[in-house]
């Protein structure tokens, strides 16, 4: 294609033809670097290998799967230029509702004694619906009441947690059926996480839904003038984010074998961190699911690595906070470069 | 009132309160000002005139310290100024009333006027009592009757404009710059403003007054300087020049560019608009466009041209009036509905409402057709779309290393072609082009003009909005001229020229029909 260009155009373009490494690749290198760092520190501090321990790696990935599922929804919200602070609380709410519909009949103190021993689809569907509804409310508040996403989802974050507590007066919901807890057993959470990741990777890249999501984040006014129904689309994106938080709630309660109102505390921040570390720009218009998956893995490796080295949890939080800020600084730098190019 | 002769304009440093010498200012891609001169005598009102884009606002921003000139200098009372920001200018004695209002709505009038200069009491706290007294004193001097404690948000636009004026006067500056201060004022308020200006003039201040309104110029100005295409053209005493001379100097250039206008058979009426109104923006707009016709919209920035385009395209639905397509009345309440009815709008501001700067060329081009066509079972038919975009790119001669290139890396002309491509892919029957060639180089301009000609040959009805008179004159079959939200006249291609367009664009409707 280049051969048809006239010489003058080369001048214009040549200076911008620096070698570009895709964001995902550079984030992946960071992941590898951190893993190697822990490997080396492991031999120095503990005389043991960090990576050569499949058990540890599996636990690490399992831990990150639930946050990863949330992060896939949050990534899409951030691509539109918004934010979702409610996902951790929505997880807790759906975990409660789901668990209450998945109890065994032998259990004397079931929440709905008439609705026990139901097939696993029922609690799963209920969880997804509750999550989607919460997201729908977020979206409607943002699109029609024109409330900033930060505030709308902050309200949902507080309220959903309250509903989760009020649902059983703060009592945990336990004794769940085996067919339901199977959803969270073994490597199933990882499989669900990866399936969701592949699904939305395709949706963002190859469907109209994805293209509109990027367009709205890049320039909402231009999107509107190009005939996109921006409001309707935003509602859909927030509803999908809620649906995924609901799915995470189902997986979390199935894995724990119980629904508790305190589940998923601060998960929204880990999910946002995974997206931002993965290269999603808080300014909107930029971001990929693959990056978010790697971002979630980076958080997981950090957590697992620090625990392995015996670093106190307080210090882990300090480092995690610093990493999130560093990721945003990198994003700001990239953004400025983009603007300069324009 | 000024009785000084043109001879008083001869260079004599001590004689001028403000002097701009040989100023040049370039922005990436354009020279906004080149070799510009301006001399303001104390105790006079100096009017600046010129078309949109003549460089007046840039010059004022240089004098007010917003921009730093690349060359030349600004002298105040004969002494060169070195300004690094608006604050420097204020401290030196130059105050500016901005065209756009910069007040804080939830603060009181007094707080707005004295912001950053609040009187303090012995404890270092803001002394509101004294602040209100100072405001009252200022208002008394200016004859303004407003409560200093009132919140600014409760004021009308005209009221806010008066506060801006009072604020500028409160600095007791030597030089006061007013950029279209009457644009939102009613007649009575304009009179009030002129009384204030007369007072300031009597105190020996220098006032720079930018306006497009010819009648105002002759009422208030002592001297007039005319700018065109970033250059100083002429300066004269108001008593020595006529309005038609000013217009000639403002438009100046002849239509030297070649426009590829061809005679195209004009077909049936495609779009007809009747008594279209949008509250306090435009009123009673009626016109029709035929297949194969180019209807030009001329008028100054802010005359409502762009608003009409946006209303036709469903961005801001009208408050009353009707739009008919092929003789059938249509209600268009969103851009998508407009697209379904065969309309397309290339928006005025490429960066604000056109481009997705962070996205690639193809992502920018394909966006408008995704909704209707090119999707099967929710999946975008990317292959077919790629081919269509590629052939559109060839057809429009878009120069880009690849369709994946980020659009921000393309030149303005190529960006514009991509946006035109976005709309051509929807196969519009009515194409509205708002400033289709603004800020792009001559070569790309000519290509876009050729393209427009090709489209009307295919029977597309085109509405072309442009601030460049030669373009409007060169391309249009008919020209609709607007002034402050009203149509002031239609001109046929054969009778239109720069002078009669400018006259219609800068004068209110002749009160032959209704008076209110």
UniProtKB/TrEMBL annotation, chain B:
Catalytic reactions of this protein: D-galactose(out) + ATP + H2O = D-galactose(in) + ADP + phosphate + H(+)
SMART domains in the cross-refs: AAA
Compartments, record wording: Cell inner membrane
Membrane topology of the entry: Peripheral membrane protein
Recorded GO MF terms: ATP binding
Pfam families per UniProt: ABC_tran
EC number: 7.5.2.11
Residue intervals of the ABC transporter domain: 18-254, 264-509
Swiss-Prot/TrEMBL keywords: ATP-binding, Cell inner membrane, Cell membrane, Membrane, Nucleotide-binding, Repeat, Sugar transport, Translocase, Transport
Domain of life of the organism encoding this protein: Bacteria
InterPro entries named among the record's database cross-references: AAA+_ATPase, ABC_carbohydrate_import_ATPase, ABC_transporter-like_ATP-bd, ABC_transporter-like_CS, P-loop_NTPase
Function comment: Part of an ABC transporter complex involved in carbohydrate import. Could be involved in ribose, galactose and/or methyl galactoside import. Responsible for energy coupling to the transport system.
Similarity field: Belongs to the ABC transporter superfamily.
PANTHER family found in the cross-reference section: CARBOHYDRATE TRANSPORT ATP-BINDING PROTEIN MG119-RELATED, GALACTOSE_METHYL GALACTOSIDE IMPORT ATP-BINDING PROTEIN MGLA
This protein's name: Ribose/galactose/methyl galactoside import ATP-binding protein
Species of origin: Vreelandella neptunia
Lineage summary: Bacteria, Pseudomonadati, Pseudomonadota, Gammaproteobacteria, Oceanospirillales
